[in-house]
């Protein structure tokens, strides 16, 4: 068994982690208004689909050793390389940029598949999959696992500026710095060119007779769908996990979606005997009870012994907790303890705040190349933003009960209107038409890619080997966010191998990889434990002990003050930087 100790609190929030995706019913393929688009007479259109990399000779890949954040230990068969690929696939004899890729190979002599993983963000690093690859290659030795850094990220010609390391972010200075560094070449850092990168690299490492599969998570599903527009013939099957549907994915709906799923969690509380009883001491309706806690904050008399607890801290804390299958179980008890504010509650809540602050420190590591905010800003404003102003975003979050406030900074940059973004290349917010076998997965408790933005993919891709699965109780990242009882037991034991291979998402994915054209076995869906808030659940006791310092999340007295973050199994999507 593979056993490691990582922090469960290394969560993937897009933009701040998991996915910079929000839904919008406006399927206008154009970019958001008011941005500084640089037009080019050579812009491609969808009519040229699949042509722009036909004349590109796949480069020879010179595999070598990997940095330690990928080569996790001496037993891991990881290899890394940097390929020189065209900066702009529309231009003949384009200058080139470095694109970083790596693989972890199974030990079997005969392989049944190469599986590429595309990270989300936009701006996440493919290096974040290294832990999964180590486990998967050991359990499935007849598969090889590949990933890359999206162009503009990590070791792939990273878009960077001095201003991004300073708070508050000087986006005007950063934009000027990027223009000085790249000039018009900045327009080539697009989803389309990144999809061409994947297409060319697939051909560069393809082995005769070995099928190629591609997995995308969150923005990675958007990137993958662009690949399906351009080069579907190079893929034998694809998995879309936590889906950004073209035309239904807008960042300005990101914070509203957190509030929506937060409301759903509180509605679940209303049907739970323990939770309804506890919050019933505030109000019979849990959502209204939370509103009354916010009213106390506004009045300045909520749990003064705890210190400066304001709306921003509470809504962002609740938003952060709701992203994780395990962490979210304490949300109602946070509200209950805040309202009561007994000495034991102050100690428990201070322990929780220590955990959340420690989480930020864990995944804010400037020594490791990873998620890139500048690349993410460019793609979001070009393809994944509607027309919400900063004032509108601020007005919303100030009234929200759950939010990660992702829309504020990007809304401010949107209002400024001068961030350099690329124009519509004919592929933005348009569907691929393909019969490639697809497995599409989305949780019904996912605040980053809600069902409303995922289900259009299931309605569009209806081929005989294209399956959409709604995963009950799962948050973002079904591959790890759909634990079965076996996975939960492994979680408690820090048995990473069993945990990562026995979630329902992982079971369905590897079932699909074994037979992409056959029916997907979804029997494990019934085994995913429902969201509940009792005090006697082992999961709830475990998380209460981890976060509060007592096994009783409702009434327990913590054993003492928390001074460090406890270590658990990871959310393997974890980014290495968090803004």
Describe this entry's structure for a reader.
The protein is an alpha/beta fold. The chain has three domains: 58-241, Alpha/Beta hydrolase fold, catalytic domain (Rossmann fold, 3-Layer(aba) Sandwich); 251-425 and 534-573, no CATH class; 438-527, no CATH class. It is 35% helix and 11% strand. It is built from 18 helices and ten strands. It has helices at 130-139, 171-182, 191-205, 219-230, 254-270, 273-279, 286-299, 311-321, 331-340, 343-362, 373-383, 390-399, 407-416, 451-460, 485-492, 496-502, 504-514, 538-547, and strands spanning 36-37, 78-86, 96-105, 113-118, 143-148, 212-218, 237-243, 420-421, 438-443, 466-471. The strands form two sheets. It has an eight-stranded mixed β-sheet with strand order 2-3-5-4-6-7-9-10, sandwiched between helices. Strands 1-8 form a two-stranded parallel sheet. Helix 3 packs across helix 4, helix 9 (331-340) packs across helix 10 and helix 12 runs antiparallel to helix 13 (407-416). The protein is globular and about 70 Å long. Residues 1-20, 22-48, 360-370 and 568-579 have low confidence and may be disordered.
> What best-fitting shape do the alpha-carbon axes yield?
globular
Count of helical regions:
18
Record field, number of beta strands: 10
The oligomerization state is single chain
Order of helices and strands: EEEEHEHHEHEHHHHHHHHHEEHEHHHH
Query: How can the largest sheet be summarized?
Result: 8 strands, mixed
Calculate the mean pLDDT score and round it. 88
Beta fraction = 5-15%
SS class: alpha/beta
Distance between the termini: 34 Å
* Helical proportion, percent range: 25-40%
Any idea how many domains?
A: 3
Strand order of the largest sheet: 2-3-5-4-6-7-9-10
């Amino acid at each position: 068994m593979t056993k490691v100790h990582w922090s469960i609190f290394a969560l993937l929030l897009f933009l701040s982690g998991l996915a910079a995706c929000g839904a919008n019913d406006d399927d206008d393929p154009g970019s958001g208004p008011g941005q500084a688009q640089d037009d080019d007479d050579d812009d491609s259109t969808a009519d040229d689909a699949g042509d722009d990399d036909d004349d590109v000779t796949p480069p020879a890949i010179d595999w070598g050793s990997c940095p330690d954040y990928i080569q996790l230990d001496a037993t891991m068969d990881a290899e890394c390389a940097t390929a020189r690929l065209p900066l702009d696939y529309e231009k003949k004899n384009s200058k080139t940029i470095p694109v970083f890729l790596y693989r972890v190979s199974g030990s079997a002599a005969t392989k049944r598949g190469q599986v590429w993983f595309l990270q989300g963000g936009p701006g996440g690093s493919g290096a974040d999959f290294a832990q999964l690859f180590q486990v998967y290659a050991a359990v499935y030795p007849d598969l090889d696992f590949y990933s890359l850094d999206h162009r503009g990220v990590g070791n792939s010609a990273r878009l960077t500026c001095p201003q991004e390391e300073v708070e508050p972010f000087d986006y005007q200075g950063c934009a000027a710095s990027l223009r000085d560094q790249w000039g018009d070449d900045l327009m080539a850092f697009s989803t389309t060119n990144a999809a061409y990168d994947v297409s060319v690299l697939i051909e560069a490492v393809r082995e005769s007779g070995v099928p190629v599969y591609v997995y995308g998570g969150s923005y990675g599903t958007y990137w993958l769908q662009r690949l399906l527009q351009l080069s579907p013939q190079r893929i034998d099957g694809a998995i879309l996990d936590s889906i950004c549907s073209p035309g239904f994915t807008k960042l300005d709906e990101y914070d509203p979606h957190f509030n929506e799923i937060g409301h759903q969690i509180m509605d679940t509380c209303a049907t739970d005997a323990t939770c309804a009883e506890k919050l019933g001491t505030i109000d019979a309706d849990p959502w209204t009870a939370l509103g009354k806690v916010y009213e106390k904050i506004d009045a300045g008399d909520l749990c003064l012994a705890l210190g400066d607890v304001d709306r921003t801290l509470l809504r962002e804390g609740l938003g952060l907790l709701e992203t994780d299958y395990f962490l979210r179980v304490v949300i109602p008890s946070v509200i209950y303890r805040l309202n009561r504010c007994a000495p034991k509650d102050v100690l428990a809540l201070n322990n929780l705040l220590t955990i959340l602050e420690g989480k930020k420190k864990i995944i804010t590591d400037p020594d490791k190349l990873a998620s890139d905010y500048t690349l993410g800003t460019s793609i979001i404003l070009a393809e994944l933003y509607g027309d919400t102003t900063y004032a509108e975003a601020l007005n919303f979050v100030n009234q929200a009960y759950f939010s990660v406030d992702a829309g504020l900074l990007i809304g401010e940059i949107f209002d400024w209107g001068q961030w350099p973004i690329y124009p519509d290349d004919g592929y933005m917010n348009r569907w691929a038409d393909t019969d490639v076998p697809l497995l599409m997965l989305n949780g019904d408790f996912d605040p980053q890619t809600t069902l409303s933005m995922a289900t259009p993919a299931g309605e569009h891709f209806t081929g005989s080997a294209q399956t959409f699965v709604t995963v009950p109780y799962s948050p973002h990242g079904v591959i790890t966010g759909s634990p079965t009882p076996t996975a939960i037991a492994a979680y408690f034991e820090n048995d990473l191998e069993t945990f990562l291979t026995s979630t329902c998402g992982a079971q369905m994915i590897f079932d699909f990889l074994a037979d992409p054209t056959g029916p997907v076995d979804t029997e494990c869906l019934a085994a995913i434990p429902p969201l509940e808030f009792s005090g006697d659940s082992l999961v709830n006791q475990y998380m209460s002990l981890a976060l509060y310092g007592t096994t009783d999340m409702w009434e327990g007295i913590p054993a003492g003050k928390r001074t460090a973050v406890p270590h658990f199994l990871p959310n393997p999507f974890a980014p290495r930087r968090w803004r």
